[in-house]
């Protein structure tokens, strides 16, 4: 019994220090402990994403890994639409290194709200943002320059993203100078637009099957999102060949 406890303690310690492709998990670690430990060790000098969005995002990420739908990049993008659009509410997390590698402003759709996002839609021509998990697609050059296609993978919430041309692109209106004039940054037609400064590097980094999670505490979404299934996510952790 003592030997089992010691082994479990060592594995938990490893998981709390960093993620690693080589770390193996077993039934002695709960999903909640794993996520709490990784969050507490998340490296970033600024404001980290709140724990609840981090937890939900990581659960969805693990479920998508189980479905073999993600690349091996280990990147998780979180967008917290509870926050003012004047705040930096986008985080890109390198899960393999357990650190935030980018933090910036991000726009919401013009019919989703003014300074704050409040209404969401999956309907074509709604000019609104859509909640849930996305898998990034290919890059292309359009009217906004280099852009990133997004595939919404939650039916009824964001599955029309590609047909609606909901993409990530740079925009001049995603800037603090815009806030000085209008009290908020500019709004998109539903795209998670990011600042022009460094947008090409970010888009290239996220392209080709990384995970993006756009969050707002909508009760209907939280009740019906299948990717928020913690039991399924825990099964991923206990696989002998688990890696991020």
Automatic annotation (TrEMBL):
- Which domain of life does this protein belong to? Bacteria
Which keywords belong to this entry? Signal
Q: Name one Pfam family in it.
A: YkuD_2
- Extract the signal peptide range: 1-20
Q: What is this protein called?
A: Murein L,D-transpeptidase catalytic domain family protein
